[in-house]
């Protein structure tokens, strides 16, 4: 009886594993911590590319030459774009 229960449990586990075989794990780009190198892929893209990207809790998106506060937050992601919305630079601070 014990063998039948173990065999059934093993079969169910194998069936569940086989069912997941075709699925791909989707990794979100970005990070919850600020590291400019992690966000370099955004440079040259439209600022709408930020949608769906994992970002730190603090994000500042601004047009180049816009006034900005000078306070420093090491985990704030700064995204600078041009008048057309093309991302020019990503920094932390």
Textual characterization of the structure:
This protein is an alpha+beta fold and 93 residues long. The protein has one domain: Trypsin Inhibitor V, subunit A (Trypsin Inhibitor V, Chain A). The protein is 19% helix and 19% strand. It contains 1 helix and 3 strands; from the N terminus they run H-E-E-E. The chain has one helix at 2-19, and strands spanning 58-63, 76-81, 87-92. Strands 1-2-3 form a 3-stranded mixed β-sheet, with no helix packed on it. The radius of gyration is 23 Å and the shape is globular. The chain starts with a helix and ends with a strand. Mean pLDDT is 81; it is low at 3-11 and 16-26.
CATH architecture descriptor text: 2-Layer Sandwich
Whole-number mean pLDDT: 81
Apparent shape: globular
Written as H for each helix and E for each strand, in order along the chain, the element string is: HEEE
Number of helix segments?
1
In helices, the fraction of residues equals: 10-25%
Sequence stretches where pLDDT stays below 50 over 5 or more residues: 3-11, 16-26
Instruction: Give the strand order, joined by hyphens, for the main sheet.
Output: 1-2-3
Protein name: Peptidase inhibitor I78 family protein
Keywords: Signal
Pfam family, one: Inhibitor_I78
